[in-house]
Amino acid sequence: MLVILCPFMGIFVARIGTRSMFLIGVTLNGLGPLGFGLLYYVNSTAAFTALALILRTIEGIGSCFIQIPGFMIVNENFPGRTSTVSSLLLTAIMLGFCFGPTVAAILYDVGGFTLPFLVIGLIQIVSAALINFILVLPDSNEETQALMGLEALTKFNSFFKFPFIYIFMFGVMSVNMGNGFCEAILEPGLQVFHLSSLQIGLTFGLLGVFQLLIPLWGIILDRIKRGEVMALVGCFIAFLGVSMFGPLPFIPVHRAYPITAIGIAIFGLGKGITAASSYVMLKREVEANVGDTLLGSSFVATCQVGATGIGGVIGAAVGGILYGAYSFRMATLLLVSTFLILFILLLIFICQQSKLTPKSLRFSRFRNNHSIIKTLAEIKERTPLMFSNPLSQSSLKYSIRPDGR
Questions:
Q1: pTM of the entire predicted model
Q2: Residues of the chain with pLDDT under 50
Q3: What Rg do the C-alpha atoms of the chain give, in angstroms?
Q4: How does 73-84 read in b/e, with b if 16+ C-beta sit within 10 Å?
């Protein structure tokens, strides 16, 4: 549902407003688990399957309605600390994914199938009630005016104008491919070690231990301007981790739980660094081309959530196919190849940035610096003869907007 709805989210935000959309998403995400908990009492297989698909669709819609307004709210309310606050948001998402199975396993052992779903659903419903009183945002009319042009930007042909955005969207997608893969394949892959449900849940928790460091990566990214280098380091660490928890089929080592557990922990560390860095660099690249506005924030959130949905689907589906047709070790080749490709793309990006000419440097670094662009606009009005230099003319042509920004 994330993939299908993302291109239309700008229209929904413009008409509903970020606050209302966020509340609807939290409510739907609470109703979904409550419904799943009641499926235990459905005896018909066909009815169970149909209801499960409907409830899963509702959850998908709710998730999309939460994530896009969530990132927009962060971008608009913390403009000077976007990396830090966004990293906290990513930390919450990653911790929920990693420790959810652990908490669910404990609740399952205590109360059976229904209890985990009821607890999660009630938490979401109570959260929606609290958010309704706590969350205060600007008037939705201002948002609607700012988002009038979002439909054109969310069309697929708009992406071709900004090629570097693809690299960091692929980074976000790679991280969530890892999440989808682990969600679908890691548990059956661990059955060979004859672990209990609690032990499997704790193994999932290893993925989340280093997710607690994501706010630290956000603070670092707020202070440095080389997020692509951090993404490269995180990608390499994730590559090493996923190579271990298989381990790779061509490595002459038998599967052992300690090696798998260490590999999972290392993968969690690299995944956290890559997630924070890819999001921050995606935001910088989008804002360099679209602008640091509510419109730009919407575009960033759409790219982020769209890549998240695509990655989760590919990781679970393709990983499941490889696991069913071959083995768990062969299935890990999906993540190994994905992070290897990302590593190569990041190297290309870094090399390209190091060879930037002054003209392209102005495009990628200064277009979002409004003070510099406004100064250039004033110079243009006062001294028109300066445009005898073709470089200055072409640079200002693309940098200065009609409103002087």
A1: 0.70
A2: 139-156, 357-405
A3: 23
A4: bbbbeeeeebbb
